[in-house]
Design a protein that fits this description.
Number of helices: 3
Structural class: alpha+beta
Strand content: 25-35%
Oligomer: single chain
Low-confidence stretches: 1-9
Radius of gyration: 13 Å
Distance between the termini: 13 Å
Order of helices and strands: HHHEEEEEE
C-alpha cells in the first residue's frame, strides 16, 4: 500500500504534508506512530539539500507528547546511528511525501 493511500485511510494526510504541526499530532495520525516515515521541520526549507528525519522508534509518555528517534539526514548527509528528535513540541513539523 502506498503512503498516499495509507494517509487517506488514516485521515488528515493532506494537512500533515501542507501545514506545520507538533510532532505528536503527526505521529498519532500515522500507522505505527509513523515508524518509517520521513518528517522535516519548516525552518529547514531554506537549504536546497535534503533535510529530514527517518523515524525508527516512537515512545508515547503522554497524550500530548512523544519521544522519537531516527536517522537525521541534514543537508544531504545521514547520521550513522539513530538520534533523538529534538524540538518535538514545536509546531514546525511536516510529513515528507515519498
Amino acid at each position: 500500500m502506498s503512503c498516499k493511500n495509507l494517509l487517506k485511510l488514516v485521515g488528515g494526510g493532506a494537512d500533515l504534508v501542507t501545514y506545520p504541526r507538533q510532532l505528536h499530532k503527526i505521529c498519532n495520525s500515522l500507522y505505527q506512530y509513523g515508524v518509517g516515515s520521513k518528517v522535516t521541520r519548516s525552518i529547514w526549507g531554506k537549504w536546497e539539500e535534503d533535510c529530514f528525519y527517518t523515524i525508527t522508534k516512537v515512545s508515547k509518555p503522554g497524550m500530548n507528547s512523544v519521544k522519537a528517534w531516527g536517522y537525521l539526514t541534514f543537508r544531504g548527509k545521514t547520521t550513522e546511528s539513530p538520534i533523538r528528535l529534538r524540538s518535538s513540541r514545536k509546531s514546525q513539523w511536516t510529513l515528507v511525501e515519498n
